[in-house]
Design goal:
The protein is of the alpha/beta class. It has eleven helices and 13 strands. It is an enzyme of class 2 (transferase).
């Protein structure tokens, strides 16, 4: 673990890596032409939630690790002056303004795209970004994990990371024992300190009877810059892929590790059920959908009988 002196010198997190190379097979045929990250939660693409979360946290550089077939992501995140000019010519300034606000401007924002042609694992995806990361620790955001809350999950983590001893911090949530096989799971060590859970390592998708805890790791990571050294030369792990979990566990004894229990609600938007839950939750936040939600209650109640 880091010393108190090291706490005060912890470098700022300036880079966020977005692994977006997955082909979204669980959402076919919808993802045949549209990347899963651009599927809408009502009128807001899933990816936009993640971009806004990184911006809120003050990240300077975003690196998208994508796939050659997903050129629509690059088109989406960049500004489209021609489209906005057409909208303004039609008097739709409000829509053009919202598009401009959502876009990442290559002249003002530090945005990079790198390719991961083969699905070699999350660890491999993170390593693909190494040539473009700024010095110091890095954040990793999985857009499939939508976390709704008053404050962005990454912002909460970075606030805690500034004074936390460990070099690696992972977002965690409690799950049922029969669900741990779908997650990386924290190996606790010692007592919790507020939202922080000291840990000695992580186990990728353990059998329920062998899980070291019920604290599942979800798609937000703040990682010491040494993660790239630990990923290099790492042998394939579970599923024959380069697992980020394995690299974090490898460095845990050296730089320290803790879980972070975020305040928001997490939705697994890599699944249809999770996407539906996220859409309904997001609709409840906007009064213009109240009438529709009210109309559906009798239908849902009848279906549940």
């Amino acid at each position: 673990m880091s010393t108190p002196e090291q706490k005060t010198r912890k470098a700022k997190v300036r880079t966020a890596i977005f692994p977006v190379a997955g082909l979204g097979t669980r959402f076919l045929p919808a993802t045949k032409a549209t990347p899963k990250e651009l599927l809408p939660v009502l009128d807001r693409p899933l990816l936009q939630f993640a971009i806004d979360e990184a911006r809120e946290a003050g990240v300077e550089r975003i690196i998208f690790v994508s796939h050659p077939s997903k050129t629509a992501i690059e088109r989406y995140v960049h500004a489209d002056p021609e489209l906005c000019a057409t909208l303004r010519a039609k008097g739709k300034d409000d829509i053009a303004d919202s598009l401009d606000a959502a876009a990442l401007d290559p002249d003002q924002d530090q945005v990079f795209f790198v390719m991961q042609p083969e699905p070699l694992g999350l660890g491999h995806a993170v390593l693909c970004a190494v040539d473009h990361v700024l010095p110091g620790p890095v954040a990793v955001i999985l857009p499939d994990d939508l976390i709704m809350g008053e404050k962005g999950c990454l912002s909460e983590m970075l606030d805690a990371y500034e004074t936390a001893a460990p070099g690696h911090m992972v977002a965690t949530m409690a799950v049922k024992r029969d669900e741990v096989h779908a997650y990386g799971v924290l190996v606790p060590e010692g007592e919790a300190e507020g939202r922080l859970l000291p840990a000695s390592g992580m186990v990728e998708k353990p059998d329920p009877d062998e899980a070291p805890s019920l604290q599942a790791v979800v798609g937000r990571y703040v990682l010491d810059g040494s993660i790239f050294d630990d990923l290099r030369g790492l042998p394939p792990g579970r599923g024959g892929e380069i697992q980020l979990t394995d690299a974090i566990a490898k460095g845990a004894e050296r730089v320290g590790l803790c879980g972070f229990r975020f305040s928001g609600t997490r939705f697994d938007c890599g699944s249809k059920v999770g996407m539906l839950r996220a859409t309904l939750a997001y609709a409840h936040l906007h009064s213009e959908y109240d009438a529709v939600l009210q109309e559906q209650r009798p239908v849902l109640a009848l279906a549940a009988e």
